[in-house]
Amino acid sequence: MYSCEKCKKLRNGVKFCKVQKFPEILCIHLKRFRHELMFSTKISTHVSFPLEGLDLQPFLAKDSPAQIVTYDLLSVICHHGTASSGHYIAYCRNNLNNHWYEFDDQSVTEVSESTVQNAEAYVLFYRKSSEEAQKERRRISNLLNIMESSLLQFYISRQWLNKFKTFAEPGPISNNDFLCIHGGVPPRKASYIEDLVLMLPQNIWDNLYSRYGGGPAVNHLYICHTCQIEAEKIEKRRKTELEIFIRLNRAFQEEDSPATFYCISMQWFREWESFVKGKDGDPPGPIDNTKIAVTKCGNVMLRQGADSGQISEETWNFLQSIYGGGPEVILRPPVVHVDPDILQAEEKIEVETRSL
Q: May I ask which residue range the UniProt record assigns to the signal sequence (predicted)?
């Protein structure tokens, strides 16, 4: 139902949804379970689905730039049992021989196409289908078999090559997964760079680049000197911050009765700890105590039950001088006033006890 502005009445309406861009892998999740109050039931209605040539053209928006709208089935997940208990199996197509196999825990069995089509599908996985993409892959494969002398060898991302081998629309070549912003290899990736790249002869690179574009072209790998210097600076910063914090915190722990405690958000502190211990490559942003602070009568106080830690004033000043942020949340333990007569009596008892 919708409200008509012209006649000011409720009218029956139909809502249409169109798709601008289709994914390379399409996942269709069928509603197999119905939940009503305290009861759940399974919907066992058979749903027909094609193994090849699923056409989604009717669902495409008119102004969409999409060109490939057909899909072939890759895999089917099925549920056997009831809404309260059951067992999952999967049917998957082997891309090498185009045969279907049933995966049931540790058991793998070849099955016929009719078995897959008659399955009680729960989740369907489709992949874009393109005869043109398959022809292109065969063409590049044939070129690789032709041993052509090449003066230059080009490095290309294995990640993008995997998309080229499997996707109907791999998109532009992207070598940025193994390069830094300066065009070199980041120092942290240098030890496993061979796992990230593949070397191709010039004629293969020229063919791929002329068709898909992207890049950048890389025919020499080197460790980026700029990134190396930055990495050394970061490592030195980590070590310095950690050492100073440990020293200040040790002094804080040795104090018998500190006059003040500074509170710090544990969420921010955990991010900082991950940075100085090398678990996270980037330093955290400014200290954010907004979630642990509450303002009462113009005073900033610690929120009850807040996820916070206590540090010394020196530690707070040290961290705040580097990262900034806030607000300051200060706790001042109440001072316990001892009656002089009671203190004198305790001292007298201590002296008498020593004499014994």
A: none
